[in-house]
Amino acid sequence: MVWSSFRGWILVCLVVCNQAGLALYLRASESSNARVVPPWPPTETRLRVIIDTDAATEVDDQHALALALVSNDRFKIEGIVAAHFGDKGGPQGIERSYQEILTMLEKAGLKGQIPVKKGSHPFTYSQVPPPSEGVDFIIERAMADDPDPLWVISLGPCTDIAAAWLKEPRIKDRVIAFWHGRTEWPTKAWNFNAYNDLKAVRILFSSDLPFILFDTGTYLTCPMEESEKRIRPHGALGAYLHEIRFRSPAWQSPNKGLFDLGDIAALIDPSLVQFEVVNAPSVQWDMLYDHKNTHGRMVRIFSIDRDKTFELLEQRLARAATQ
Predict the structure, then answer these.
(1) Would you list the domain boundaries of the chain?
(2) Which of 6, 69, 87, 98 is the most buried (most CB within 10 A)?
(3) Which CATH class is domain 44-321?
């Protein structure tokens, strides 16, 4: 009887201890995986940035990159990573983006002054980060001895920032992930950038990286007549932005969106955009958002002032052309 009572007491203690231990573990896990809401609007000080861009896919990346390159007062560009653009670019997509970035730097008078790295091909397995010098560069700059966070601005697929986090999770305390999704919120994460690497999107949304989703920009259109007056006259860079639109009839359409321009404009002048802080949903394999299984809070930018965005680009290009 004594032994039976003693054994029962031991079992009760084990259950209580296990429950307490489990609760402590869950709290620690929640704490360690907590996603910090990134600062928005961002600080007015100069931002450390890496721009990750599928620059060769069409013409909006070039407009975004140009605005960043002529905004030295706002950005300390630590490097640019050339991204793939899925099946449209194929295995040569990264090299094509790389060459387009080099051309942009030359047009901006910055040849050889900013590091340019090649990013990764799309994820094959969700648990294995695809290797590249671009991914390693993001990690290196993120972990550098600098008190300011590193903004990783992904204008194409989010492959490289997702791979960097998977390879070195400690960067969550050192970076802010800013991704151009332009999705079908709140229903579906569908977008060219998303379906070019769905595994990367699922990783980014479920990670603990401070995360800003740029979820707008479709109406950032600029008819060729307007481009002729406002962009082409301003130096070699402005002329190049106008001329590349002649590479395709579709790019000359008055309805052609220069989507990625908005990401850079928002970071220069946050008053241009409207935003909300929302729960970060899971992204399912059919690209539907799952708002029941969430991963902390994120910033979602959902509107941007079209006219003021192009005024900003025009002013910055004109200023750079006279310097």
Answers:
(1) 1-30, 44-321
(2) 69
(3) alpha beta
